[in-house]
């Protein structure tokens, strides 16, 4: 298991990607921002059901109980974001 919270976390990684895309081109900023927000939302929804190993579920439950209003994209990091892209739908 990886120690939580992670730095950088998923939200920071996605924000950094969005900022780097904005510097390169401004023609599709709205589309890129919408995709990034969709990824963040999907990550927050999918984490507990699809992305965690069995041994990580207790830690996830503890995080939810300690800070129920905090999105998990601000707690988990790149390791779990990569699982999102490798998970079949």
Write a concise synopsis of the structure shown.
This protein is mainly α and 89 residues long.
Unreliable runs = none
Please trace the helix and strand order, writing H or E for each element: HHHH
Per CATH, the superfamily is MRG domain
Strand tally, please? Answer: 0
Q: Beta fraction of the residues?
A: under 5%
- Using the coordinates shown, work out and report the CATH topology: Enzyme I, Chain A, domain 2
Query: How can the largest sheet be summarized?
Result: none
User: How many angstroms separate the termini?
Assistant: 24 Å
Rg to the nearest angstrom?
14 Å
Count of helical stretches:
4
In the CATH classification, which architecture applies?
Orthogonal Bundle
The residue fraction in helices comes out at 55-70%
3D architecture notes:
This protein is mainly alpha-helical and 89 residues long. It has a single domain, classed as Enzyme I, Chain A, domain 2. It is built from 4 helices and no strands. The chain has helices at 10-24, 29-51, 57-66, 78-86. α1 (10-24) packs antiparallel against α2 (29-51). The protein is elongated, with a radius of gyration of 14 Å. The two termini are 24 Å apart.
């Amino acid at each position: 298991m990886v120690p939580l919270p992670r730095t950088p976390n998923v939200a920071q990684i996605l924000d950094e990607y969005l900022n780097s895309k904005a510097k390169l081109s401004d023609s599709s900023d709205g589309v890129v921002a919408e995709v990034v927000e969709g990824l963040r939302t999907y990550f927050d929804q999918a984490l507990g059901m699809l992305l965690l190993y069995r041994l990580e579920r207790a830690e996830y439950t503890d995080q939810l109980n300690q800070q129920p209003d905090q999105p998990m994209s601000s707690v988990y990091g790149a390791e779990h974001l990569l699982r999102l892209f490798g998970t079949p739908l």
